[in-house]
Design goal:
About 60% of the residues lie in helices and about 0% in strands. It is mostly helical. The protein has 2 domains: about 1-40, no CATH class; about 40-120, no CATH class. It is rod-shaped. The termini are far apart.
């Protein structure tokens, strides 16, 4: 039974007497989804995840080939492979970003050193 917000507010009962009507906090609902269905994957766009392109295509094909079976674990193995690929991709991106930030830091420090020496 779903009650709209105005009916809930105008009810005689207080909020503490109707705890089942209060909406779940966003973090709790996400946690429940992750608990029961595993982590949600990011949008499956190939241009954002070139390392996982083959697995993404296979996963999408599995979902289109098994419209009902996907709810009963038909594509679970591919989902696990996809999650692993995303984790590996994240590690690679993190390393590249770290290297890039170190190079930027070195160039900034060199620039600051030049300006400090030139100003004296």
């Amino acid at each position: 039974m779903i009650l709209n917000d105005s009916l809930y507010r105008s009810s005689i009962l207080s909020d503490s007497e109707l705890p089942f009507l209060s909406p779940l906090p966003a973090t709790l609902s996400v946690a429940l989804v992750e608990l029961f269905w595993g982590k949600m994957h990011p949008p499956l766009t190939i241009y954002k995840h070139p390392m996982c392109a083959e697995i993404i295509e296979a996963f999408q094909k599995c979902h289109s080939d098994h419209p009902v079976g996907k709810f009963f674990g038909e594509c679970t193995e591919l989902k696990i492979k996809l999650d692993r690929c995303f984790r590996q991709e994240k590690v690679v991106k993190r390393k590249k970003n770290l290297e890039k930030s170190r190079k930027l830091r070195e160039t900034l420090q060199a620039y600051r050193k030049e300006t400090a020496e030139g100003g004296n």
